[in-house]
Amino acid sequence: MTNTKFKDTDMQAIIGWVLRAGVFVSMLVVFIGGVIYLSRHSTEHIDYHEFKGVPDFVHTLPGIFHGILAGRGRAIIQAGIILLIATPVVRIIFSAVGFMIEKDYLYVGITLLVLLIIISAILTGHGG
Amino acid sequence: MSVLVLTLIILVGSYFAGLLGSLTGLGGGVVIIPLLTIGLGVNIHYAIGASLVSVIATSSGSAAAYVKEGITNMRIGMFLEIATTTGALIGAMLSLVIHAPVIAVIFGVILIFSAIMSLRKKDTTVLQNESVWAQKLKLNGSYPTADGEIIKYSVRKVGGGFIMMLFAGVISGLLGIGSGSLKVVAMDSIMRVPFKVSTTTSNFMIGVTAAASAVVYLQRGYIDPALAMPVVIGVLLGALTGSKILVNSNSSGWLRWVFAVIVTILAGQMIYNGLSGKI
C-alpha cells in the first residue's frame, strides 16, 4: 500500500510538471505570434460580428505549417493554441503510463477510453 | 475598430474577466463571453472558441499547482472524464446546429445558476460509507489538510454523479465554458466528495473536457487566432492575479455578493439579447 502511495505522488508530480510546461510553452508561442501579428496588422480594421470561419492558413495543419514558415503571426498563434489544446491530452497519456506502472489495469482502461473519445472528436470534427 | 485598439480592449477586458472568474470560482469563461458578445459585438461562435482556449489555459495552469499538493483525486477525475468528454463532444456538435440566440439564452440561465451556486454554504462533513461502486472503482481517497493531517473520505451515488457530469460536459461543449459549478454539483451534492477535493478535481477535469470540444471547434474554424490571442493571455494573467489575492485574503461575504450581482446582470443581458435576437 505504501509503495502504491509513493507512486501516486510521483505521478502527480510528473503530471503537474507536464501541465505547467505545456501552458508555459504554448503561451510563449501565442505571445510571439501575437507580437508579429500586431506589428504587421495593427492599423487594419477588423470586425468579428459576422461568422465567416477562419482563413485557410490558420485552419488546416498544412496551412498552419506553411504559415509558420512564412512567418505569419496568426499561424504561429494558432500553433500555440494547438499546443495548449494538446496539453491536457498529453496529461492523459502520462496518466495512462502512470496507471500502467502501478499495474492498475482498470484505470489504464478508463484512461485509454477517455483518450479514445478525444481521438474520435478529432476524427469526427470535420465530418457531419 | 483597428486591430491594435480592439486587441488592447480585449486584453484588458479578459484580464478582469480572468480576475473575476478566479475570485468567484466561476472561471473566466462565464465573464468573457458576455464581454465579447454584448460589449464588443463579437459573434458568439468566435467568442465561444476563444473562451474555450482560455478555459484550457487557466484550468491546466491551476491544476498543475493543486495536483502537486496531493488534494486532487485523479481516479475520480479520470473516471468522470469519460462522462465529461463524451458530453463535451455532444455539446460541440449541438453548438454547430443550434442558433446563436438560443445559445445566448441557455448561457444566461447557466450563468444565473452558477452565481447562486457560488453563494451557497459549503458542506464540510466527510462521508464514511460503503458504496459498492465507489469501492470497485477505487474512488475513495484521502487528502492532507493544512496541518498535515490526513483525512480519509468515501463517495456515494457514483451513477448519479456520472450522469450529472455528462450534462456538465454538454454545457461545457455547447457554451465554451468550464462549467465548474455543474461539476461541483455532481461531486459535492450528489457524490459527497469533500469540498476541497471536488474543487481541485473539477479544475483538473475542466482542461480535458474543454480540449475534447476545442478540437471540434478548431477544425470547424471557430477559433480565430487573432481574437483568441488577447483572450487567452488576458484571462490567464487575470486568473493568476486572482489566485494570489485569494491566498492572501479570505474572500469576504460581501465581495462574493457583489460578484454574484454583476454576474446575474450579465446573465440577464445575455437572455434579453438572445430573446430579442440581438446576438
Short description:
The complex is a heterodimer of chains A (128) and B (279). Chain A has 128 residues and is mainly α. Chain A contains four helices and no strands.
Which whole number gives the mean pLDDT of chain B? 86
Number of strands of chain B: 2
Rg of chain A, Cα atoms, Å: 19 Å
Can you count the helices of chain B? 11
Summarize the amount of helix of chain A as a percent range.
Answer: over 70%
Which pair of chains has the greatest number of interface residues, and how are they split between the two chains? A-B, 66 and 66 residues
Provide the structure class of chain A.
mainly alpha
- Major sheet of chain A, described briefly? none
What characteristic shape of chain A results from the CA principal axes?
Answer: elongated
Residue stretches of chain A low in confidence (pLDDT < 50, at least 5 long) are none
Order of helices and strands of chain B: HHHHHHEEHHHHH
Instruction: Give the overall form of chain B.
Output: globular
Strand order of the largest sheet of chain B: 1-2
What multimeric state do the chains show? heterodimer
- On the 0 to 100 scale, the average pLDDT of chain A is 87
Tell me the Rg of chain B in angstroms: 18 Å
Strand content of chain A: under 5%
Can you offer a commentary on this structure?
The complex is a heterodimer of chains A (128) and B (279). Chain A is an all-alpha fold. Chain A contains four helices and no strands. Chain A has one domain (2-40, 55-124). In chain A, helix 1 (2-41) runs antiparallel to helix 3 and helix 2 crosses helix 3. The longest helix of chain A is centred in the first third of the chain and has 40 residues, at 2-41. The mean pLDDT of chain A is 87. Chain B has helices at 3-24, 29-40, 44-69, 74-97, 100-119, 132-136, 158-175, 180-190, 195-219, 225-248, 253-275, and strands at 141-144, 150-153. Chain B contains eleven helices and two strands. Chain B has one domain (3-275). A two-stranded antiparallel ribbon of chain B has the order 1-2. Chain B is globular, with a radius of gyration of 18 Å. Chain B has 279 residues and is mostly helical. Classes of the chains: A mainly alpha (128), B mainly alpha (279). Chains A and B meet through helix 1, helix 3 and helix 4 of A and helix 1, helix 3, helix 4, helix 9 and helix 10 of B.
